[in-house]
Amino acid sequence: MRTFFFLILLATTTQTIATQQAPDVLLFEGKELRLTTSWAYPSPLETYYKQSGQTSPFKATGTALYRGHIATWLIENEYLYLNKVESNDKEIQPSEIGSKLGKKQSSNGSLSADWFSGVLKATELKYTETNDIFVADYYLNIQHGRILELVRLTREDYDNYEQNRANEDAQSKKVAITDLYQRYTDYYFRLSEPDEINWNGKALKLKTTSGMSPLLQLYNNDHLNWPFNWNNKSKTGAPNCKWYIDKDNRLFIDEIQLLTGSNIYKAEKSKLLLSEVIPKNDNEEALFANWVNGIFIFEEGNMVEENGYSSFKADFAHFVKIENGVLKEHYEIDATADMKQLESSSNQGLIKLFKEWKQKAEI
Fold it and tell me: From CA 327, how far away is CA 293, in angstroms rounded?
């Protein structure tokens, strides 16, 4: 078992990539809709764990359900609520999941999805003995659990839009939410790609409990604060950075680029100026990252080819603790070590740091 599998948003294989994921359920106006989920971007409940830096307690039950759960959601009074979660034939109530879930309660006791901001797509089907017939798609633009926009699109809506794509009419504006949805899914697809850090003359992979770049700590890990999120029509993408640690163990941010696109083999990249991203910074020189705090993993290894797909394989890893942009502790370990081996290490400093990591991630 690899030590750092729990750091990665998704460890996919080509088989998983090809498998359609079982949907969540969305209850709306007496209808039971299929809420689209994917291996490429998280379901609303997964974002709860991702944003808090916790590890999801749900384990994959197959390639069609990598997230290990099916959640039922409810729309009431313009809010999205978590109604229940099913995992391994067990039903789990929202109150059992965590104290940081929503503060509002629906009429049936469901908890509001205050943590969630993004764009969702749900599908209404008509079921017959032989077929599932498409009726409509519902797109929901949500900010902190509140539904700002809900658009229902039928096959006729899609067809009319394709025939009159060049016209800036009401129909085009109605279907424009599909572009917003695409930008959102592309953003989350690229969000978990690790940053690169240069340390002691080596280029390493930098990974976090949240799976997000430490740059987003500057924006309180709130994607709505990130100026290039899915709401930015002209320039959107997930941040991906290059860092280095100097001789005084200070962390510097050196380069920033935006990643977007849904191609599984290669992201679309565009470089950002530091002055575009760092508030009150007018120059383009590397900047001391004094906002960064936490326990991180620096992985050392190589890219390997498997089944026609390139992936990074770590040989060594460094457990590090950074406070206000300064590296305070670091321990080198074998990347193939498992958690029991780490906990039984003779290095008390490593054990203490690892326990702190576990407490944060709730492994």
Answer: 9
**Distance between CA 209 and CA 213 in Å, rounded?**
10
Residue 147 sits in the same domain as residue 99: yes
- Is 350 within the bounds of a domain? yes
Spatial separation of the C-alpha atoms in residues 12 and 40, rounded to whole Å: 9
Region for residue 170 given its phi and psi (left: phi exceeds 0; alpha: psi -120 to 50; beta: otherwise): alpha
- Which amino acid, 207? K
Q: Are residues 313 and 351 in the same domain?
A: yes
Please say if the pLDDT value at position 197 is more than 80. yes
Question: Which position has the token pair 């050196």?
Answer: 254
Predicted model pTM: 0.85
Number of domains in the chain: 2
pLDDT tens, position by position, 261-278 = 988 888 999 999 999 999
101 in the same domain as 205: no
Its domain, for residue 264, covers 192-361
